[in-house]
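Need a sequence for this fold. Nothing fancy.
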């Protein structure tokens, strides 16, 4: 159960190839990146109200300031929205359809908070993205070599000393 979405693709370095090789399916969580891929957030406009980030803008990996400041976040969101508009679909449906087309992904863990969100998410099953659209999303969201676990944060994690450890 790895985290996997257009915003977090680091598992493609090792986990996905290992799963494919071992013929093991993946059941990713946070397929919409904590709501970022749902289309509800706008660049440089901090969220408010009854959303995960509206209630707590510094929430974990989805923290507003960090994701908003990352240009690739908005490149991905803009690409998703463009494809969604072309299909008359939601951004969530496009992001989920892309994820469902990835190797070894057998199903995704949806994080819908309302019946309307669940209904919208389930609509992704009927959305067929073209190979060009899949390639466009894949290119826009290409993982960076400095993302965890390979960048500074990963190095720090691997080199930390645990109290009482060796």
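Here you go.
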């Amino acid at each position: 159960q790895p985290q996997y979405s257009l915003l977090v693709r680091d598992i493609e370095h090792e986990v996905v190839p290992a799963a494919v090789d071992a013929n093991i399916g993946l059941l990713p969580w946070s397929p919409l990146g904590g709501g970022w891929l749902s289309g509800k957030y706008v660049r440089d406009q901090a969220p408010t109200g009854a959303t995960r980030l509206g209630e707590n803008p510094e929430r974990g990996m989805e923290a507003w300031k960090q994701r908003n400041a990352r240009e690739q976040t908005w490149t991905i969101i803009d690409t998703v929205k463009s494809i969604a508009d072309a299909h008359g679909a939601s951004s969530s449906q496009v992001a989920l359809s892309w994820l469902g087309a990835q190797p070894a992904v057998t199903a995704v863990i949806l994080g819908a908070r309302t019946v309307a969100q669940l209904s919208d998410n389930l609509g992704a099953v009927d959305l067929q993205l073209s190979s060009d659209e899949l390639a466009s999303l894949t290119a826009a969201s290409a993982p960076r070599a400095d993302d965890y676990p390979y960048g500074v944060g990963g190095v720090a994690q691997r080199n930390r000393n645990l109290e009482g450890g060796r």
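For context: The chain has one domain: 10-159.
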